[in-house]
């Protein structure tokens, strides 16, 4: 329109422009972050993998960052100690000052933080240069004859300025994000190391969840603040600069705008703080979800899913109410973000007119002022948020400092001196109430026995130095290997679990496998000893976990072995082999010092020394014959308890790399509600159209004022113009408020719908799913989807964007975060084992490895975003250049007001593109969250809870259980776990189920509850095929006392009666039957005693008795006991068995037991071997047949009498 094709000057200009563009494109490829182009090409051709990413510079890796920061932290600790010494030397009772984490961070990263701040200074200064150049261009358009070709110079200068601003700002973002990530890395490294060194007393102050929260939340909070910390000074700097330039344009009238800012900023800060505080209310739901998912087997066995689903929904509704309040607070934030520049400009222009009736708004004043007002927008919005973040980060710093300044584990409490040819142990601490004097000869085999809570495990902990020592000494010689009561297994291959960092010695390794009875298990595992073991070892049995843990200790070649009841989880045959080939006088450890916690009476004659613990003291100590001579009833004296472990399954979660399907977005929109969708689109369009109308009105106002010669006429229309401008602003504010309200309502609806669907889908998944997926991942999906709160508005803004590179690297980064938390959680569970083996440094190095992997992915993600931002902003810069050149070329045909408006919008495009890229990435991430939530919808579910065919209300009334040619396997790719099982019980019959490890005993009980579905045949209970009825109709009519004693946090009463169906009298009655009444009466709150997460404040034996009491309340016609008394002593076991016989005398009982004396009085015994029935007869007939059952009795030392 402005150029003529026949003009030679125009042709030259086009050639010149082409040359400039070519040069600029060459320059772009030479800019920082251009090396990422190779990954972009690779990501376009194939899905990116970790190996495709660029490595970090060595100075930025966790291997360098962590040691440097730890050195600065140690200096800070030493300085603090010196200050305290100086104060004490002057007898000053001064306030105890802790070492400052903030000061240590500053000393470590101060130079790079200063460098980042300088980048920000240059970027901020350049941001104010653009409005000044635009001002000169508008003046040039108004006085073109006086300036000539200088207008092109202004256009080129404006382009250079905005281009330099882009480069500097992106370099600022690059260094800023990397520095913040390095700070997080350093803090994580310090937290991890501290967690390994934490003393037992200090550990009591912090739960495992709290320590994990320090790493996942507080360290992240510190990183987030670091990324925005420069806004603390940059925001006020930009505001002051803008006010200074506005003063030059509008004089004292700008003070009216300042007054608006003074009023709005504190209000925004208050709102930001309120919104931050609202987010704390989700902890209760996460805690309950975590416990439910860990104890999902109990919920399924007892058909409690609807009850706990209701509890979660109730908590969720409370959280949604909080989210609603937060959403309404967000309405105010949205209003201020959008309308502050308008309110400031309205107040400023209004006062400008009032100060002097001769003041006229020219195009120069209008668009220069509006550009400055637009610069004010982001600092005014960000500053309150940053101030709020500072307050929150201060809280995080206090928590981190409290943790880092707690007492460390002191190896000096253990003296490794060799005294008199024997080990000498003397322990006194706050748990063992009396002093202990124990002498253990070198190479001796020692048994430690006692009742639940008598101090057996605490004795081993004292030897390890894990207990608080008040006085006395603990002396030992040589290295230590420790097998914990709850077997600790790492999430790695089985071979690595056994080697535990040691060098592979093939012959020794094979001897250990054979001695620990692991060779048959390796044949069953898919990949032998290369099989990936899940989180906490849940894809192997409890007995296998204990044997792997024992094998790890044996392979280590230590001098002293502390064995905390490793034989309790294996059957008699395997236990006998472990003792003979590993622990006993002819085993691999025969020349080592062995301290064994056990309940197996048959082993006591083989011991060199027996220690009987009672109430934290040594009640008896001596050889077997010495103790036997002191008491007539050895059974009453020797009461030993074993503990079991529980775990969760995990598999590798490979990140998905394909794009998010539109159907996922559509599903969210449906959950949002189409009414709210279209209202949101309408309010957003209205808001932007009114904003455009404001600028056009100002442009027309300035243009009209320029051509108005009569001052009186201008004075008459001025107030009218101002009123309309104010009305447009108020209309925009109304659209903003309406849009924020609509967004809040729709988001809450979507959140409620998606949460309900997710919860329902998860609870209907089969148990095998929970055994092959990490619980942490599922909990994360319940919480992560909350990040989609404002997805709809972003979707409306940025629907066209499909950035494959950012998506792939973000997913790699997301996948690399999980190993960091998983490794940390795993370490916290096994810290005693790690310290006992002396492998702290190896695990610290592993932590650096996984953190560094996450840092590499994060860095590549930052670089890819910067690469994209530079090029997108360069397009915006080109629009500024062409808009300026065309305005200059237009000559007198374009009014200065239009020039100002076009250049102002062109300048805003650069900022908008940057915002556009950031929000596009957020959409991709949030859409992935929705996709993961929806994944569970398409997974295979277990059978319906309720079906059309329902059994009679009194079913089962006889208790006849019949298996007909039944077969079952755990997965399609595995062999049959049960083969051709056929037998029938009589009503009110007690059947014992025995067999060696892996025979299929627990599988049989799982099939009865349809935890494992059959592959053939059928199970009939009182004439009804259980596969034809709903799961809850089946499980609600059966009763089981499971092997793993699972309790939930809450009161003891809630754990006994979660559905609140029984009276207190009934609860006390079952507690008495389980021999827990005296213990509960001794508790301050009795039935209202608070059970900690997982029942950690009860011993495992007590937990199992609580589970037994829970089953006694739920009296049904059929009872299954799956190793229900494995963790209680023999005497209590006999009493419990008597109670079960009495209370369930009219019921059919199926009892699975390793302790054969528990089932020797059964009506019949079912003997399993390799998933098949080998014998099914009365105990007397089986003994006469001299088959497998007779062999097991012989191995257990049970005679025919």
TrEMBL record:
Annotated transmembrane regions: 20-41, 104-123, 152-169, 225-247, 253-272, 326-355
Q: Does the keyword Phosphoprotein apply?
A: no
A GO cellular component annotation here is: vacuolar membrane
| Signal peptide residue numbers | none
Which keywords does this chain's UniProt record carry? ATP-binding, Membrane, Nucleotide-binding, Transmembrane, Transmembrane helix, Transport
What InterPro entries has UniProt attached to this entry? AAA+_ATPase, ABC1_TM_dom, ABC1_TM_sf, ABC_transporter-like_ATP-bd, ABC_transporter-like_CS, ABC_transporter_C-like, P-loop_NTPase
Q: Which SUPFAM superfamilies match?
A: ABC transporter transmembrane region (SSF90123), P-loop containing nucleoside triphosphate hydrolases (SSF52540)
Q: What is its main location?
A: membrane
- Compartments, record wording: Membrane
Q: Name one GO molecular function term.
A: ABC-type transporter activity
Q: Which Pfam families match?
A: ABC_membrane (PF00664), ABC_tran (PF00005)
* Domain ABC transmembrane type-1 residue range list: 114-392, 678-915
Per the database record, which ranges form the ABC transporter domain? 398-640, 961-1195
Protein's recorded name: Multidrug resistance-associated protein 1-like
The scientific name of the source species is Monodon monoceros (Narwhal)
């Amino acid at each position: 329109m402005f150029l003529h094709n026949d003009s030679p000057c125009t042709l030259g200009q086009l050639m010149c422009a082409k040359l400039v563009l070519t040069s600029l494109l060459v320059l772009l490829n030479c800019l920082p972050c251009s090396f990422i182009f190779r990954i972009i090409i690779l990501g376009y051709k194939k899905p990116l993998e970790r190996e495709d990413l660029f490595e970090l510079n060595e100075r930025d890796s966790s291997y360098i960052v962590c040691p440097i920061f730890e050195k600065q932290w140690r200096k800070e600790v030493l300085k603090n100690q010196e200050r305290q010494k100086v104060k004490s030397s002057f007898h000053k009772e001064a306030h105890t000052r802790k070492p400052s984490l903030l000061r240590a961070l500053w000393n470590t990263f101060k130079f790079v933080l200063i460098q980042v701040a300088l980048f920000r200074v240059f970027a901020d200064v350049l941001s104010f240069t653009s409005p000044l150049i635009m001002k000169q261009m508008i003046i040039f358009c108004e006085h073109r004859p006086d300036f000539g070709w200088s207008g092109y110079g202004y256009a080129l200068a404006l382009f250079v300025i905005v281009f330099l601003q882009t480069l500097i700002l992106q370099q600022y973002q690059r260094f800023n994000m990397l520095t913040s990530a390095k700070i997080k890395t350093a803090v994580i490294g310090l937290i991890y190391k501290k967690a390994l060194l934490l003393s037992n007393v200090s550990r009591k102050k912090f739960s495992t969840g709290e320590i994990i929260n320090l790493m996942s939340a507080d360290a992240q909070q510190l990183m987030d603040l670091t990324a925005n910390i420069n806004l603390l000074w940059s925001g006020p700097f930009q505001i002051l600069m803008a006010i200074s330039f506005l003063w030059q344009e509008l004089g004292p009238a700008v003070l009216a705008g300042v007054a608006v800012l003074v009023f709005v900023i504190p209000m925004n800060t208050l709102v930001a703080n309120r919104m931050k505080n609202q987010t704390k209310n989700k902890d209760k739901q996460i805690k309950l979800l975590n416990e439910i998912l860990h104890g999902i087997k109990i919920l399924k066995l007892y058909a409690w899913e609807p009850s706990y689903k209701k509890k979660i929904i109730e908590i969720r509704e409370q959280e949604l109410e909080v989210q609603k309040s937060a959403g309404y607070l967000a309405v105010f934030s949205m209003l201020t973000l959008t309308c502050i520049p308008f309110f400031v400009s309205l107040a400023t222009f209004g006062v400008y007119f009032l100060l002097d009736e001769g003041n006229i708004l020219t195009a120069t004043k209008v668009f220069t002022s509006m550009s400055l007002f637009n610069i004010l927008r982001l600092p005014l919005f960000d500053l309150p948020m940053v101030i709020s973040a500072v307050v929150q980060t201060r809280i995080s710093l206090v928590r981190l400092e409290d943790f880092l300044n707690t007492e460390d584990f002191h190896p000096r409490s253990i003296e490794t001196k060799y005294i008199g040819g024997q080990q000498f142990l003397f322990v006194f601490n706050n748990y063992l109430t009396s002093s202990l004097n124990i002498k253990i000869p070198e190479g001796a085999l020692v048994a430690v026995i006692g009742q639940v809570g008598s101090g057996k495990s605490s004795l081993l902990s004292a030897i390890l130095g894990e207990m608080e020592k008040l006085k006395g000494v603990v002396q030992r010689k040589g290295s230590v290997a420790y097998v914990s009561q709850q077997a600790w297994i790492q999430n790695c291959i089985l071979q690595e679990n056994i080697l535990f960092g040691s060098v592979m010695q093939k012959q020794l390794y094979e001897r250990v496998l054979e001695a620990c009875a692991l060779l048959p298990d390796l044949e069953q595992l898919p990949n032998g000893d290369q099989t990936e073991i899940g989180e906490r070892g849940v894809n192997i049995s409890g007995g296998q976990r204990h044997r792997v843990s024992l094998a790890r200790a044996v392979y280590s070649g230590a001098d002293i072995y502390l064995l905390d009841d490793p034989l309790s989880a294996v059957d008699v045959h395997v236990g006998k082999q472990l003792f003979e080939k590993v622990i006993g006088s002819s085993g691999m450890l025969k020349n080592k010092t062995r301290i064994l916690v056990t309940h197996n009476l048959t082993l006591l004659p083989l011991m060199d020394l027996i220690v009987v613990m009672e109430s934290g003291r040594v009640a008896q100590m001596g050889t077997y014959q010495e103790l036997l001579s002191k008491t007539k009833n050895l059974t009453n004296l020797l009461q030993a308890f074993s503990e079991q472990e529980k775990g969760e399954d995990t598999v590798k979660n490979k990140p998905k790399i394909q794009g998010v399907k539109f159907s996922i977005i559509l599903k969210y929109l449906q959950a949002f509600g189409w009414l709210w969708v279209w209202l949101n689109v309408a309010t957003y369009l209205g808001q932007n159209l009114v904003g455009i109308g404001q600028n056009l009105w100002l442009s027309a106002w300035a243009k009209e004022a320029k051509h108005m010669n009569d001052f009186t006429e201008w004075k008459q229309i001025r107030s009218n113009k101002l009123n309309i401008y104010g009305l447009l602003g108020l209309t925009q504010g109304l659209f903003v408020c309406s849009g924020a309200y609509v967004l809040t309502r729709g988001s809450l609806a979507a959140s409620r719908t998606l949460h309900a669907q997710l919860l329902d889908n998860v609870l209907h998944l089969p148990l095998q799913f929970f055994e092959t997926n990490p619980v942490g991942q599922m909990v994360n999906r319940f919480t992560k989807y909350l990040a989609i709160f404002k997805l709809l508005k972003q979707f409306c803004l940025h629907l066209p964007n499909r950035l494959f590179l950012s998506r792939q690297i973000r997913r790699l980064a997301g996948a690399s975060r999980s190993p960091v938390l998983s490794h940390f959680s795993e370490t916290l569970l096994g810290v005693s084992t790690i310290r006992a083996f002396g492998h702290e440094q190896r695990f610290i190095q592993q932590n650096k490895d996984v953190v560094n992997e996450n840092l590499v992915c994060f860095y590549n993600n930052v670089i890819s975003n910067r690469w994209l931002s530079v090029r997108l902003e360069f397009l915006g810069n080109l629009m500024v250049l062409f808009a300026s050149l065309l305005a200059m070329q237009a000559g007198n045909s374009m009014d200065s007001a239009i020039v100002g408006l076009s250049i102002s919008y062109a300048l805003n495009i650069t900022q908008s593109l940057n915002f556009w890229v950031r929000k596009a990435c957020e959409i991709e991430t949030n859409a992935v969250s929705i996709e993961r939530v929806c994944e569970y919808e398409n997974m295979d579910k277990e059978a319906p809870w309720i079906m059309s065919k329902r059994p009679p209300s009194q079913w089962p009334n006889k208790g006849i259980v019949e298996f007909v040619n039944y077969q079952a396997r755990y997965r399609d790719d595995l062999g049959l776990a049960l083969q051709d099982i056929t037998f029938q019980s009589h009503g009110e019959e007690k059947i014992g189920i025995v067999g060696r490890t892996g025979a299929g005993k627990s599988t049989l009980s799982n099939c009865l509850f349809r935890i494992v579905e059959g592959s053939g045949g059928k199970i009939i209970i009182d004439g009804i095929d259980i596969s034809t009825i709903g799961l809850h109709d089946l499980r609600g009519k059966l009763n089981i006392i499971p092997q793993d004693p699972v309790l939930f946090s809450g009161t003891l009463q809630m754990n006994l009666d979660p559905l609140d169906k029984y009276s207190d009298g009934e609860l006390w009655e079952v507690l008495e039957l389980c021999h827990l009444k005296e213990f509960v009466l001794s508790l301050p709150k009795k039935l209202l005693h608070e059970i900690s997460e997982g029942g950690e404040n009860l011993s495992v034996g007590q937990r199992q008795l609580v589970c037994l009491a829970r089953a006694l309340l739920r009296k049904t016609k059929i009872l299954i006991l799956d190793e229900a008394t494995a963790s209680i002593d023999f005497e209590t076991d006999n009493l419990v068995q008597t109670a079960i016989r009495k209370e369930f005398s009219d019921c059919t009982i199926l009892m699975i037991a390793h302790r054969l004396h528990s089932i020797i009085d059964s009506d019949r015994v079912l003997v399993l071997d390799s998933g098949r029935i080998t014998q099914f007869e009365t105990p007397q007939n089986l003994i006469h047949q001299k088959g497998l059952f007779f062999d097991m009795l012989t191995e257990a030392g049970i005679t025919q009498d």
